[in-house]
Amino acid sequence: MDPLTIAGLITSGAGAVKGLAQTGVGIGQLIGNKRPDEISYQIPDEVKQILQLARIRNSNAFPQGDRYRAQIDTAVANAVGNMNSMAGGSGASLGAMADLYGNQLGSLNQLAIKESEAKLNAERNLTQALGTSGEYQDRSWDMNVRMPYERALAEFFNRRQAGMTNLFGGIDEITGAGNSMMMNEDLMDSLSKLTKV
Fold first, then answer.
1. How far apart are CA 21 and CA 174, in angstroms?
2. Least confident of 31-45, 81-95, 104-118
3. Which of 134, 128, 125, 105 is nearest to 60 (CA)?
4. Which of 21, 39, 52, 118 is most exposed by smallest CB count within 10 Å?
5. What residues contact residue 130 under an 8 Å CB cut-off, 6+ apart?
6. What are the distances in angstroms from CA 43 to CA 48, 120, 140?
7. What is the pTM of this model?
8. ∠ CA(128), CA(129), CA(132), 5° rounding?
9. What single string gives the DSSP state of each residue in 83-113?
10. 143 contacts: CB under 8 Å, gap ≥ 6
């Protein structure tokens, strides 16, 4: 075999080996590439505790209301009892009792207003706590879960693309080496002489 033919054979063989290596790398990249696990969001325990506390405060917005109501009722009952024992049912005592019941209704009305204001403030605080915690939950989830997942997914697809590129690039290299050998008539003649022996 002449030196030019041997050089062509070596070049084609080297191209084929390079193609096989590149194909192997591509297959390795495809096999070793694992898609990241799907993600899900869990609300942090601290946020749950804050919301639970806000809900408790909301439901007991004015807990002393029952105590005040009982005190008003007791004071009126005591006053009525005292008036009855002192006046013996006179017209003056009836007027005093009417005034007493009027005062009771006024006190209960003031109490109802305070309870409503406290309830409104508690609801406003709960709404604010829910809004604030929701913002932080979203930020935390974006930073700690969604963004890393998207990066991992992009890396997965990039490695997959690189593996496919190497796989098909290697196959092209092997095919090119085979075509190069087939096109070299001197090389083919030399190979056919070797196989006839």
1. 10
2. 81-95
3. 125
4. 52
5. 51, 54
6. 7, 27, 10
7. 0.45
8. 85
9. HHHHHSS-HHHHHHHHHHHHHHHHHHHHHHH
10. none
